[in-house]
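Now for one record:
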Amino acid sequence: MINRTDHYVAWALLIDELDEAREHLSNLTEQMARDGRIDESEYAAHLGHVFAHLNRAWNGRDFSGDATDGQREAMSLYPSDLTPIG
């Protein structure tokens, strides 16, 4: 896995993906609490956005180069090597 010492930029990008996921999830929960409802398609779009950030954080954990659009798209997919727990 990358680390801050050996791959400073890649590490910062990984942290940014996690921060973005947290921010979007926080905004979603605040909106839902405020409005008391959400359209299913809007809910799916929000969660899809959060998952994309989390997926890139996991799939990019060993990636230290400049990602092409295709690589970034592939990293956005749900990981095949991560089993949900709980």
Q: What stands out?
A: The mean pLDDT is 96. Residues 8-35 form the longest helix (28 residues). The chain is about 65% helix and 0% strand. The radius of gyration is 15 Å.
